């Protein structure tokens, strides 16, 4: 019966004695203010915020500076990147001379300096996107205004931008041989610093404006490359059409580049040298060089550029503040299942229930008690494990007492969570499985000590040796004195025995150094022991709780048993049905429910379960059988109404926390495992949700499976739903292992047998009582008992019985059961793995419009922008100038680099989240990493082909490239290979770096290297001989080679440059090193890069694991 809130309120004030008393007191004594002059409010009237403007900005800036300084990895990475890339770039442009040909190289050095400072702003994107999540909460709580947050983000980056500019300027300026005079150098440094400030503020603004990371990556890539494109180097100023010239005048990179080249070319170094013959009389070499690229020649453009960069920094910071003030976070979309599909699933569930009831009725008529096959005979497949309702899932101690799951003491109030626990689904698996008896004996685990220091270890060893020697000397002196008084014979005997009678102190010190904790400093221990000889077992149908205080080693023990550890050393034995656990077979029959619910957000609940089931169930099962079993599992975990809901991203969209946890359990359950491990399945859930999850876990155990659960401070109802308990303390020491008993009677009796243990208060949670008296948690009500509980357990009769029982289970299983065997590591063949993975990724990509529609839409928009900027520039006139060639090569350089970087940056968030999912699925032996790599490569192909077929036809004919069919289709092939390379390269960077932020920094660094060495900014013949191999090694060299040679390599028109003339194709061969007969080899070289990178990324997935366990 539902009762409204108003009715409950009325009942409280009129029927409840406490409510009536409170109402009477309020009527008799109305509330009076304490003083006729109340204290002023904490927040002034008319203001939303407690802090004034200056205080808010200062507080937010301090916080932001703290966050910046604490990100040591990013800080060190950026500084190292500046130094390394600065040295590489400086060595490439090393010691340039003074000539018209050298001027283009100097312009290239200035362009690369601007480009490098611009790339330094890329880390602002992920950092700001993460800060926005916190900012939305702070804004809702009224912490401080938007201008405080916006100014804090801007001001906190100024020191780092300045430091990067100083380091890069010091390296670049003197290695390239710019004009060495203090005024010119500091002007160069000022331009670098203001360029970095301006571009970083642009990236922050885009991050504040965009709703998510995928959109932000695409939008920033578009704006960034568009501004680079119109900066005046990829296409010279006067070649930009009038309708696009506005972009030239708003580009921060354009102002920075113009200021840099003017700063150098107006120096005496270039002004004192006349222009070469054939050019206008009276021109200096510096002016002639500036005119050849349509740069302005007046010195005022230096300070115009600096002013624009500072002004754009202020304006973009202001617009970021406006965006922070008014933008709203993304709202999760509602998910409604398909009513028809849901009705069909419910109908099938009713049929299964009816069939199950009929089978149980027949079985009950045949026998009063159904004998359950003992676990030791678990080598044979078991169809169904049926129990009496009173005995479902209880251990032998409970059965002896005649307890039932649903029984409660007289007068006990049944809470909603207890009612949820008792609402069992009486179902039995329709698929056979092998019951597992799991035994672990004397388990130990060591990990490398991250604080280990060789110096500290040597000092500790030296101290131990000195203490040992001092003990020996003291004992020798004592023995000698005793010998002098007692006689030579006795003295001789004592002295001979002295070396074997070390003092207790020395022996303890030596032992501590060898491996124990003792008094050895933490820094002197080479490894730390996390588990210390734990012995236990778990039988089919028994629900085992694994508990302990924070840091006790609960998850560590479970990871060791499940074979999920990637570092450290393991000791002891783990046996499955009496046989040593084989990792390959063990991973196939075991399910591991991790603490964090990691799923692909683009799948529905049903699809996620079908994916796991199809890849992990035997290949003998048909797809219809798999689908039926998935529906059965959906019913077990109460997810049938949500079967059509998208999983979504945690905290943003999709399933609730509790439903996501049940999905995590179901993903493992559909694999039909014999043994299931669950790591804190109730963490973060309220009482009702935790009870629902534990009901699902209880159902799994009722089905005859071996279940082990780590749990932290459960409620009374949840705690008493377990059968057995393994309690450990910090250091991996066993405090208790045994049955709980009805209402925890066995557990309470064990601890109460120890003198001094406080009595369990009435209504108190036995789990909390247990942890407080043993020191597993902070004592709040009870005092910790000063007893060495692990030592007490080790000396107890219970430990002796447990050790004997564990060995008996091993011996019995070894005699009666066979070792687990699997035909191969994976349940399904390679082709099926690729098919299932491809279906998953196809659906995920189709449901990710933020990724695919964005990059396809950006490709369409970009193609028209490039066509508008380079309209008609593809037709090289006869005679041509170097500006014409520069423009044609510029469109190829800019377009391939732009769309390549769009794909590279956009794919990172997608594969970054999927990588974590891959780690979970790899641990479950779902599929071969090569099947995963093949599927994720194939799913990209249609979208990449669409990009190529959209972009190339539009720009090709609007720009005016060669209309021959061979040249056109060749351009499409090379461009398709280009975006495929960048996409796979972005995936690879995510796979080989620990975090997406680092991958983006590394991606920006690699792209900078590509731009330096690809032969556009400084051509192959102009490179120092020591760096020419790098030009041939970077893939974008061959991209530019193929695109450029297809349009200019066969052009025999005249080109005039520096007073001399030559054919265009000869100029390409001489100045760029491009040969027309290499064009099809270029296609094969790019294909080889794509394939090698794809295989390399798969190998990185297979052998590199940044999920350290």
From TrEMBL:
Residues 515-755 form the ABC transporter domain. The keyword Nucleotidyltransferase does not apply. Keywords: ATP-binding, Membrane, Nucleotide-binding, Transmembrane, Transmembrane helix, Transport. It is a multi-pass membrane protein. It comes from the Eukaryota. The chain crosses the membrane at residues 73-94, 106-125, 146-176, 182-203, 215-236, 301-326, 853-871, 891-911, 932-956, 968-985, 997-1020, 1080-1101. Belongs to the ABC transporter superfamily. ABCG family. PDR (TC 3.A.1.205) subfamily. PANTHER family: ATP-BINDING CASSETTE TRANSPORTER. This is ABC transporter domain-containing protein. It comes from Volvox reticuliferus.
């Amino acid at each position: 019966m539902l009762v409204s809130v108003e009715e409950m309120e009325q009942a409280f004030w009129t029927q409840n004695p406490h409510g009536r008393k409170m109402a009477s007191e309020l009527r008799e004594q109305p509330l009076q203010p304490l003083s006729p002059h109340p204290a002023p409010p904490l927040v002034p009237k008319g203001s939303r915020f407690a802090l004034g403007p200056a205080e808010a900005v200062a507080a937010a800036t301090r916080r932001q500076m703290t966050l910046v300084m604490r990100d040591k990895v990013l800080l060190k990475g950026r500084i190292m990147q500046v130094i390394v890339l600065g040295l590489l770039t400086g060595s490439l442009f090393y010691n340039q001379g003074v000539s018209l040909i050298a001027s283009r190289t100097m312009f290239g050095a200035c362009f690369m300096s601007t480009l490098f400072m611009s790339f330094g702003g890329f880390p602002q994107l992920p950092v700001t996107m993460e800060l926005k999540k916190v900012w939305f909460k702070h804004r809702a709580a009224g912490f401080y205004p938007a201008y405080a947050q916006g100014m804090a983000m801007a001001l906190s980056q100024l020191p780092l931008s300045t430091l990067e500019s100083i380091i890069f300027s010091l390296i670049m300026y003197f290695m390239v041989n710019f004009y060495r005079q203090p005024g010119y150098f500091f002007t160069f440094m000022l331009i670098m610093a203001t360029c970095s400030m301006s571009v970083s503020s642009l990236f922050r603004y885009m991050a504040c404006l965009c709703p998510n990371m995928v959109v932000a990556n695409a939008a920033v890539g578009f704006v960034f490359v568009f501004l680079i494109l119109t900066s005046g180097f990829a296409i010279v100023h006067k070649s930009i059409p009038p309708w696009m010239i506005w972009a030239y005048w708003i580009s921060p990179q354009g102002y920075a580049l113009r200021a840099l080249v003017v700063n150098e070319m107006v120096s005496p170094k270039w002004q004192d040298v006349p222009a070469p013959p054939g050019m206008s009389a009276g021109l200096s070499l510096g002016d002639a060089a500036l005119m050849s690229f349509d740069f302005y020649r007046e010195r005022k453009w230096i300070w115009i550029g600096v002013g624009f960069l500072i002004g754009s920094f202020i304006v973009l910071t202001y617009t970021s503040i406006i965006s922070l003030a008014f933008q709203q976070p993304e709202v999760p979309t509602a998910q409604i299942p398909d009513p028809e599909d849901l009705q069909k699933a419910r109908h099938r569930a009713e049929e299964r229930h009816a069939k199950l009831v009929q089978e149980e009725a027949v079985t009950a008529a045949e026998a009063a008690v159904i004998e359950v096959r003992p676990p030791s005979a678990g080598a044979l497949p078991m169809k169904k494990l049926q129990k009496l309702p009173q005995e479902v899932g209880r251990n032998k101690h409970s059965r002896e007492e005649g307890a039932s799951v649903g029984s409660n003491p007289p007068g006990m109030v049944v809470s909603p969570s207890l009612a949820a626990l008792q609402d069992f689904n009486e179902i039995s698996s329709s698929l056979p499985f092998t019951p597992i008896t799991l035994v672990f004996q004397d388990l130990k685990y060591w990990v490398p000590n991250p604080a280990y220091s060789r110096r500290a270890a040597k000092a500790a060893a030296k101290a131990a040796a000195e203490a040992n020697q001092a003990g020996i000397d003291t004992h020798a002196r004592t023995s000698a004195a005793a010998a002098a008084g007692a006689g030579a014979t006795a003295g001789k005997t004592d002295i001979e025995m002295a070396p074997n009678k070390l003092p207790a102190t020395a022996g303890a010190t030596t032992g501590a150094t060898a491996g124990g904790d003792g008094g050895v400093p933490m820094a002197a221990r080479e490894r730390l022991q996390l588990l210390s000889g734990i012995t236990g077992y778990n039988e089919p149908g028994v629900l085992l709780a694994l508990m302990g205080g924070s840091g006790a080693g609960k998850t560590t023990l479970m990871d060791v048993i499940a074979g999920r550890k990637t570092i450290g050393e393991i000791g002891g034995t783990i046996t499955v049905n009496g046989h040593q656990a084989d990792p390959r077979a063990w991973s196939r029959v075991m399910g591991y429910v991790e603490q964090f619910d990691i799923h692909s957000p683009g799948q529905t609940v049903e699809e996620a379960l079908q994916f796991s089931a199809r890849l992990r169930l035997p290949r003998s099962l048909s797809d219809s059988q798999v689908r039926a079993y998935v529906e059965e599992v959906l019913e077990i975990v109460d997810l049938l109404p949500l079967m059509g809901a998208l999983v979504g991203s945690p905290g943003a969209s999709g399933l609730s926390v509790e439903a996501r946890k049940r999905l995590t359990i179901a993903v493992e359950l559909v694999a039909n495992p014999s043994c299931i491990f669950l790591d804190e399945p109730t963490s973060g859930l309220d009482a009702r949700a935790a009870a629902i999850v534990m009901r699902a876990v209880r159902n799994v155990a009722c089905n005859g499976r071996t279940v082990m659960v780590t749990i932290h401070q459960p409620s009374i109802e949840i705690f008493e739903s377990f059968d057995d308990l393994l309690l450990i303390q910090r250091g991996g020491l066993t405090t208790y292992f045994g049955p709980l008993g009805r209402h925890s009677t066995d557990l309470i009796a064990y601890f109460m047998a120890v003198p001094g243990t406080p009595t369990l208060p009435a209504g108190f949670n036995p789990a909390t009582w247990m942890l407080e008296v043993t020191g597993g948690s902070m004592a709040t009500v009870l005092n910790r008992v000063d007893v060495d509980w692990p030592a007490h357990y080790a000396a107890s009769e219970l430990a002796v019985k447990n050790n004997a029982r564990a060995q008996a289970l091993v011996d019995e299983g070894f005699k009666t059961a066979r070792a687990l065997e699997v035909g191969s590591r994976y349940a399904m063949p390679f082709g099926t793995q690729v098919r299932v993975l491809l279906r998953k990724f196809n659906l995920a990509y189709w449901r990710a419009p933020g990724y695919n529609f964005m990059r396809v839409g950006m490709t369409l928009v970009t193609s028209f922008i490039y066509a508008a900027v380079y309209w008609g520039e593809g037709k090289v006139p006869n005679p041509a100038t170097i500006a014409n060639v520069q423009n044609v090569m510029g469109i190829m350089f800019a377009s391939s680099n732009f769309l390549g970087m769009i794909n590279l940056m956009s794919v990172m968030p997608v594969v970054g989240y999927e990588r974590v999912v891959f780690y979970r699925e790899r641990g479950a032996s779902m599929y071969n990493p090569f099947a995963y790599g093949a599927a994720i490569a194939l799913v990209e192909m249609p979208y990449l082909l669409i990009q190529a077929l959209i972009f190339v036809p539009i720009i090709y004919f609007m720009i005016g490239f060669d209309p021959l069919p061979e040249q056109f289709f060749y351009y499409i092939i090379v461009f398709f290979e280009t975006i495929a390379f960048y996409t796979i390269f972005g995936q690879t960077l995510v796979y080989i770096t620990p975090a997406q932020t680092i991958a983006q920094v590394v991606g920006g660094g690699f792209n900078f290297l590509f731009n330096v060495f690809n032969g556009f900014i400084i051509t192959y013949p102009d490179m120092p001989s020591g760096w020419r191999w790098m030009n041939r090694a970077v893939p974008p060299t061959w991209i530019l080679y193929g695109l450029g040679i297809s349009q200019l390599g066969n052009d025999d028109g005249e080109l005039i440059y520096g007073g001399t003339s030559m054919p265009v194709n000869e100029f390409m061969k001489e100045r760029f090193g491009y040969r027309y007969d290499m064009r099809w080899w270029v296609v094969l070289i790019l294909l080889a890069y794509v394939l090698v990178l794809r295989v390399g990324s798969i190998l990185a997935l297979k052998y590199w694991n940044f999920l350290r366990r």
